[in-house]
Amino acid sequence: QLQLVESGGGLVQPGGSLRLSCAASGVTWGYYAMGWFRQAPGKEREGISCINSSGGTTHYVDSVKGRFTISRDTALNTVYLQMNSLKPEDTAVYYCATIRSFKLCNLPEPENWRPAEYDYWGSGTQVTVSS
What are the φ and ψ backbone dihedral angles of 116, each rounded to 5 degrees? Predict the structure, then answer.
């Protein structure tokens, strides 16, 4: 049974940092691409970062590029999202998602950011950026 559990959210001041974790059980590393999404109140869920199945390629949307970093630790079965220089507009519920795919997130394609491309989701963790 594949399961994703996010943690690490919280309240942080603008300019601060947080590291989100996604504990992934039932994932065979090397076969699954992983993505981070977020959803602000009244807005659609948006993809912001992904890492391909080999772990060798990552992509980011422009709004977080240079501030967020996705990584994974296969020994700990965990995917991370390091978020620096946080802004109030980063406030959202953050979700990790995965799909068994050798294709997704290899190239900077719109498919990387479509929620429908991913089969498994965590329940999310709240990030609030406010002074």
Answer: -65, -15
Per-residue pLDDT of the chain (131 residues; tens, 9 = 90+): 899 999 999 999 999 999 999 999 999 999 999 999 999 999 999 999 999 999 999 999 999 999 999 999 999 999 999 999 999 999 999 999 999 999 999 999 999 999 999 999 999 999 999 99
Of 49, 76, 77, 50, the C-alpha closest to 63 is: 49
The three-state secondary structure class of 62 is coil
Evaluate whether 8 touches 125 at the Cβ level (below 8 Å). yes
- Contacts of 24 by beta carbon, 8 Å cutoff, 6+ apart: 2, 3, 4, 32, 34, 77, 78, 79, 96, 98
Q: Which of 39, 34, 31 is nearest to 21 (CA)?
A: 34
pLDDT for the residue 50: 98
Residue 104, token pair as written in the block: 């997704």
Sheet-wide strand order for 68-73: 3-7, 18-25, 78-83, 68-73
* Torsion sign over Cα 21, 44, 114, 66: negative
